[in-house]
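Our collaborator T.R. sent over the components below with a one-line note: 'Predict the complex.' Nothing else. No constraints on interfaces, no templates requested, no preferences about which chain binds where. So this is a plain run: every listed entity goes in together, and whatever single assembly comes back becomes the starting point for the next discussion.
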Amino acid sequence: MSFIVRKGEKEDMKNVMRLIKELAAFEKLPNEVEISEADLIKDGFSEHPKFMTFVAEENHEIIGATLFYERYSTWKGRVIHLEDLIVTEQKRGFGVGMALYTAILKYAYDMGAKRVVWDVLDWNQNAIDFYKSTGANVLEDWQVVHMREDALKKFIETK
Amino acid sequence: MSFIVRKGEKEDMKNVMRLIKELAAFEKLPNEVEISEADLIKDGFSEHPKFMTFVAEENHEIIGATLFYERYSTWKGRVIHLEDLIVTEQKRGFGVGMALYTAILKYAYDMGAKRVVWDVLDWNQNAIDFYKSTGANVLEDWQVVHMREDALKKFIETK
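Returned assembly:
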């Protein structure tokens, strides 16, 4: 199996969208995906892009992608957030995920990021074991908090 | 007690730095703070600012601050991340935290953010109860993963 990893371009967003939907289905939350290919193009390729992507390509077919962006830690400074890393199901087990993971970590290292961060589902033991094997830590004492759009609207309207 | 909430400026970063250190001490991790006032000025007030702040001011004294920035969800789109919200210890209990929290949620609402997200320490029950009372959800099945600078370096060097 032979593939390359390269920066994602506008033309790849259709396939990135397909992979995002595939991951959401794997995560048992397929109906949570509200964005479209047009959103990815608008938000990722404007004057101030909101994210960057790498894609894995085999025979001109996109078989994996990773989406990431910069964050800021008040303790460490500039940080990279890995939002999604997806390999299409029938292409898993051939090193595509590791190649994408390495690409993002290399990008973070080269820009001088002080940390790379992401979230993982606590039942996704394969992913957790993989991350730990590469030197990452799963934080035991932090939890993620979300205020969803409907709750935000309700909060603001009562102010 | 009378205070105002306003956007943080370069001149406020000295006091924001003081509050960041105060929060890190409360979180029992005072030695984790590696950034300086100069970093905050460089990273927050360049051509492409990495974050924004609101500060709470009483009699020309900064008594609280919140630092936030934009993220991107592959499910929802543009999202605001609340990185820190700090009220200096002797000024707690007077609504300063709620005023800063409201300012950031108002900012998110006005820009059309699809979600506001942050992390909380699982032993900080007061904070968790407060967030829940405002309509936020603590996600039970997601965990935060960090690859620190030293692990990142080690990973890259073995590639």
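Summary for T.R.: Chain B has one domain: 4-157.
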